[in-house]
Each structure stands twice: as structure tokens, then as C-alpha cells.
Amino acid sequence: MLPLALAACGFQPVYGPGGTGAALYGRVRVSEPNGVDSYVLVQTLEERLGRSADPAYDLGVALSLTQQGQVITEDNATTRYSIVGTVDYVLTEIASGRVAASGRVNEFTSYSATGSSVETVASERDARRRLMTILADQVTAQLNATADVPA
């Protein structure tokens, strides 16, 4: 009964025949990165969407990051930080210039600053990499769910 109920409500697998994921995979050119964090974001988006030699769509992404102290000790030392990331994206059909999808995703990760300076730098780099992966996954999920692309 479940397959019939899902079919009746218009459910369609994203990566199945005629699904948005299948229609986008290998057909999207992601905007050029402008820094280390955006490079990781673009690289992860290309992994999720497939690199394209002949793209049908441009995906413009704008990344913004802020860092916030989260835990402050009695002697005014910050021992934990959060990095908040926001990505604004626009998927545009190259041939017509029509916007197929747009939106904003945001998330955060944290890292500890209690170890040595080397440990803190490594923790921050790892947190930034994790954040770029999370944001890329969210953009990909939003595109798969909402993009107006022909199958």
C-alpha cells in the first residue's frame, strides 16, 4: 500500500528516472572559489553534483562566515568557538538565463581552543572543512527538492 500512497501524492525519487538529481548530475557549473573555505565548498558541491564538461546550469554561491566565542572562562579566556556559515545560491539555466532555483542555507560547527596553538589551528581547520561539507550537502538537498529543471 505504501508505494501506491506515495505514487498518489506525487512522490518521485530524486535520483530515479525523471528525478531532479538525475537531471542535474553532471550538468552544473559551480562558481569559482575565492578563498580556502569557498574552495572546499565548491569542491564538495562538484562531488555531489558531478563536474560538467558541457554544463546546462550555472550555480552561483556566495559564502559568508562569522566566528563567535562560545565558552569564556573566569579569567576571560575563550575556550570554544563556533563558526557560523551562510550560503546564498542561485541556479541559472545557461541557455535562457532563467532562474531554476535560489535560496539560502546556514549552519554552524564548533571547535575547542583549549590545547596548544597547533591543536587549536588544526581544530579550527577541521571545523571549517566540516562546515563546508554540511553547507554543500544542504545546498544539494535544496536543489534536488526545489529546482525547476526538465527531466
From TrEMBL:
GO terms for cellular component: outer membrane. Keywords: Lipoprotein. It holds the Pfam family LptE. One of its GO terms (biological process) is Gram-negative-bacterium-type cell outer membrane assembly. This is LPS-assembly lipoprotein. It comes from Cribrihabitans marinus.
